[in-house]
Amino acid sequence: MLDLHHIFAMQKKALFFLFALSALGWGFTSYQSIFLGISLGAFFGTYNFWILVRRMDKFDRNLGEGKRTASLGTALRFGSGVAAVAIAITLPEYFHLISTVTGLMIPYVFLIVGAIVYLVKNK
């Protein structure tokens, strides 16, 4: 399987492409709040994935050294998801709530699609 850092690098590339599409959608359509919500959610979703990559590195290091690791950062990732939704709720004229929640899931969709592409290529 692919290294987690390689997956994160691919996610960042896909995120920049998504931000470019969102900027075009924001600039040329009348759905500005939806595209801003997707961008906000994708930003926080990528931040959550970055936290997961960092914690998995620490978990692997500690496992190799025989130490215990307390957590994989679930509370921190949950808190950043709540922060994204709180921003969308407090500024509804700028951010669409449903698209923000959808944007939070985009990095995980990229992860699943990347795994499927990897499996199909190497079969």
Strand content: under 5%
The percentage helix is over 70%
Radius of gyration: 16 Å
Main β-sheet description: none
Overall average residue pLDDT: 90
Count every beta strand, where a strand is a DSSP E run of 2 or more residues.
0
Keywords: Cell membrane, Membrane, Transmembrane, Transmembrane helix
Subcellular location: Cell membrane
Transmembrane segments: 35-53, 74-91, 97-120
Pfam family, one: ATP-synt_I
Q: How would you characterize the overall build of this protein?
A:
The protein has 123 residues and is mainly α. The protein has one domain. 82% of the residues lie in helices and 0% in strands. The protein has helices at 4-28, 32-65, 74-90, 97-121. It is flat. The mean pLDDT is 90.
